[in-house]
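ingest -> fold -> write
write: protein_1
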Amino acid sequence: MIRPSRLVTRLSALCLASVLSFGLPQPAAFAQGNAYAAALYVNDRAISNFEIDQRARFMELLGAPGDPRAEAEKGLIEDRLRLDAARQTGIRATPDQIKTGMTEFASRANLTADQFVEALAQGGVEAETFRDFVEAGLVWREVIRAKYADKLTVSEADIDRALSVTENRGAGPQVLVSEIILPMTGKYGHLASRRARELSAGGMSQAEFAGLAHKYSSAPSRDAGGQIGWIPLTNLPPEVRGPLTQMRPGEITQPVRIPEGIAVFQLRGLKDGTDKVDPGQITVDYAELLIPGGNSPDARTEAARILGRADNCDMLYSAARGLPANQLQRKTAALRNVPRDVAGELAKLDEGEASTAIVRGNALVLLMLCKRTAIQALEAPAPKSAPDPQAPRINEDAGFAKGPSRDTVRAELLNRKLGDAADAYLAELQANALIRRP
């Protein structure tokens, strides 16, 4: 038997807004008056006092904050609008989809759907209330995808900005974590979801987690037992940032879907950061063009000619066409590994800006900053043992030891854009709706 208090404990770190839809309703409160009488109407569809009472109890069991009565009405009004929009679009959730959604929601508390329903019943919440909540979230998600998915795009420039230091990527708290990335393809791909739930279900030591990383993870960090160095909290998926700040060392996150599979993290340490990016976390992409003549007027004239034709690193290649290939080199490195004179000049530059302050031998160095990002983690500890021979093939793009992959950032940005679009559309529906009390 699952006690309601245990349910609250299991869900206390769960970000409800990311579970089923964009902007899920906030907590409700207990109904007033005749339980089955209409409390209000949304486009002539009634919301009863009983529904408000049920929503209140449901959200209270999830430990959600807020003013009970007002937030209950707000959430149920929004659900009616979501369902109306789905109906007008011809979108419906099948019984199987709803069942799957209920299972997915319950799994985030490491419960089966039946256990979740049992715990709700003990708290006075009927299964139908849970079902309706899930259905509204499912159909709304499909409405937003149908309406906006083909219209919203994420460009490579958007991803560059999201990873840049100028966007404050890398500032703030840092975490020391171990990761297990379970691929959704390959020999054991069909077991990934179940295995991820099992990993997050029970407590285990760091040594036990490391052993499972050796056996199951597809990330390069597998060879170090899944251990990665201190990284900015912002490098991790949004779904785990909040929970990690509430966890204690040794605890394990709920599974998180990423483009490379399913991720599970074990917290090993957390430290407060500042509004500045730790230099040890910065990676720079820069170009060096060597111009013969040292600090001579001719060399500086040539540098000015090239910069007049090149506004960014990619344009340097055409501006330097005809020069020997070894005169132009483009490098990407952790800032701490960049020569001191180069690092000093790069610190003065914004992306696309150049410096000609360095002379190397008989060459003037035209130095241009291409990109500055905060995605580099400190090196993982050396491997302690050979990986399991049955372990999946390593995917160099999986894992977070060097920050999120571009695919992960692309998915994050697209979800953010869809969320913004969903909020705007819901506000439009509400502005056009007829909402009244009896």
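write: protein_2
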Amino acid sequence: MDPIPFTEIEAARRRIETQILRTPLVRLNVDTGPIEIYLKLENLQTIGAFKIRGAANAMAVADPEALAIGAWTASAGNMAQGVAWNARRMGIACSVVVPDHAPAAKLDALERLGATISKVTFDEWWQIIVTRRHPGQRGAFIHPVSDRAVMAGNGTIGMEIVEDLPDVDAVVVPYGGGGLSCGIASALGHLAPNIPVYAAEVETAAPAAAAFLAGEPVGVEYVPTFVDGIGSSRVLDDMWPLVQKLLAGSLVASLDDVTTAVRTLAVRNRVVSEGAGATPVACALNGDAGIGKIVCIVSGGNIDAAKLGQILSHS
């Protein structure tokens, strides 16, 4: 798979501009010396996550006959919300297959959006990501990761970063399957080719770090935690060539550091972030992305209220 051409990202931007929010880029209110951390606040999107971008673009270019039957996806929550929100806007049916550890906050949002929800085990869910098939599902399948139209929509974030902070030194992106990081890196490859883009993972599920170390995708242990928006047991084979080509590596944060980052974002910037969105901040605060102006993608804010309260009460 080749990087997404910049022309496709530009076209995606024109296509989705009325469906998305051009999110702000703000400085983290923490004194970190030579590290200036900037937050790209995708948690402010209508569905509380960046996934609305890729879903909107992919559904805009999907096969009309398949789309007339409906749209479906496999997602732990945020892509499901992106597909469901756009399906409701387009007046079509939507169904989603979620892993059995999907958080209540995301499931509640899917119900509000009118999606039909099917729960499966994580292993069954992962097979859908690999095979793009699941019994009983009909209509247009919107892959949450390795769909070029999804990545082009995600790449619009990269365009906004360079426009708002031309002298950015590095970008750190949550890594779930690589669709967000590779979309952003595709845009930066055209606009700012010398700027490294890093994946950010949590230690309980870090397949990209393992793949970079081994030089190829390898299986890793996946331990479900509140950091539910990223992590898997293996880098997708069809994504690895792109990940290897576009990303500067993977930065791995401890679960404790991600918890601290969630608290820091809430207390210092009044930003509500889910675990995945706080992982780049944890990595940047640790100095793993280097010094200078570091942009962290706060990918979503769909965290269970009870979990957020627990994190905030244990300061």
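write: annotation protein_2
The first strand starts at residue 25 and ends at 27.
The longest helix spans residues 148-164.
pipeline exit 0
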